[in-house]
Design brief:
Elements (H helix, E strand, L loop, with lengths): L8 E4 L6 H31 L6 H18 L2 H9 L4 E3 H34 L4 H4 L2 H27 L8 E2 L6 H5 L7 H32 L5 H29 L9 H22 L2 H22 L1
Length: about 300
């Protein structure tokens, strides 16, 4: 924190000051958070324990689910506490930490989704070379690159934010600390900072989204010559990926690919990529993927049988 920074605590205004509405929102988001944790944990355990899912696609899916465990955990616990608390404050250090981890896990998710699209492109467009290209070593390096890239991205953002002085209003019109609403509170001209943020967060979202579109377009062109069963399987897998990508990237581009300003709709849009998408990912991948559904059934059946034996 620089010498000009006098604000030591920020206040998160959240969604509403109505106590009754806050209780309703608490229950709704608590259920969303619990479902997110349970769904993603089930996918992680299933992928880890079922040998039929030990392939690159499910390796990346397991990493995506782990990210989806961490990503909402950055914002949801504090938001839930604030629904029931009169003091909705967060210290400066806590705010910077929340920004770091929120953008860290968010960026990792963006990169993993991009890697998953590349994996599907290789599997469908170059099936004979798939096992050679997507070897275990390559998969590990790709995942490592996702995590390192996320760390570099979030570190750059936080260092940029820590150079800004906050000496006036301390009310953040949001349910968590994020860069656009914080920039409006800085006691200095934030035009350059806003431009750097767009070049960082916005371009990452946009470039990865365009890569995804190109990958899936190539896949759709490639499957035209396949059999009906081959088309069905390819389109089912890619359909699940495209659904997740659209729900996640759409709000991200809306928030971070524009000048540093805030709109009343921002909080609602942020809910989708910060809380709703991590909950929907397990549902989407389970409903659209027969192999995952069968593996989950085997895992649940196996655990149920073990539980019965333990009681005997």
């Amino acid at each position: 924190m620089g010498n000009e920074t006098t604000v030591e605590t920020f206040v998160l205004l959240s969604f509403s000051h109505n106590p009754n509405l806050q209780i309703v929102l608490f229950l709704v988001f608590l259920m969303v958070y619990i479902l997110t944790l349970l769904g993603n944990l089930l996918i992680i355990v299933t992928v880890k324990t079922d040998s039929s899912l030990h392939s690159p696609m499910y390796f990346f899916l397991g990493n995506l689910s782990f990210t989806d465990l961490c990503y909402p955990s950055v914002t949801a616990p504090k938001m839930l506490v604030n629904f029931l608390s009169k003091q909705k404050s967060i210290p400066y250090s806590g705010c910077m930490s929340q920004i770091f981890f929120f953008h860290f896990f968010g960026c990792v998710e963006i990169f993993i989704l991009t890697v998953m699209a590349f994996d599907r492109y290789v599997a469908i467009c170059n099936p004979l070379r798939y096992t050679t290209i997507m070897s275990r070593r390559v998969c590990n390096l790709l995942v490592l690159a996702c995590w390192v890239g996320g760390a570099v991205h979030s570190t750059a953002l936080v260092l940029l934010m820590m150079t800004l002085p906050f000496c006036g209003p301390n009310e953040i019109d949001h349910f968590f600390c994020d860069i656009p609403p914080l920039l409006t509170l800085a006691c200095t001209d934030t035009f350059l900072s806003g431009a750097l943020i767009i070049s960082n967060s916005g371009l990452i979202s946009l470039v990865c989204f365009l890569i995804l579109i190109v990958s899936y377009t190539s896949i759709l062109l490639a499957v035209r010559k396949r059999s009906a069963e081959g088309k069905r399987k390819a389109l089912s897998t890619c359909g699940a990926h495209l659904t997740v990508v659209t729900i996640f990237f759409g709000p991200c581009v809306f928030i971070y690919m524009r000048p540093a300003t805030t709109f009343p709709l921002d909080k609602i849009v942020s809910v989708f990529y910060a809380l709703i998408t991590p909950m929907l990912n397990p549902i989407i991948y389970t409903l659209r993927n027969v192999e995952v559904k069968m593996a989950m059934k085997r895992y649940v059946s196996r655990r149920f049988s073990e539980g019965q034996k333990a009681l005997q």
